[in-house]
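Researcher: Please translate sequence to C-alpha cells.
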Amino acid sequence: MNTIVVDTRGLEPPEPFERAMEALVDLKPGESMRLLLDRMPHPLLRMLDRDGYRHAAEVREDAVEILITRP
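Model: Translation complete:
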C-alpha cells in the first residue's frame, strides 16, 4: 500500500486544512496519507466521515498523527 506523508506542523490555519485537501485529491482508492498536525483537525475529521474516508488519529508528544485511507 502506498502512503504519502503530509507534515503541516507549524503552519497557521487554514493552510493545514488546505494542504490536506490537496493531498486527498491525489489519493487513489486504497492509498493512504499520514497527516501530521499541531492540533486535532475536527472540521477535517467531520469531512472525512461525511465522504467515507477511513481514518485513525493518534495524539503524540510532537504531533497529532492521522492516518487517512481513501475508500
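Researcher: Any highlights?
Model: The longest strand covers residues 32-37.
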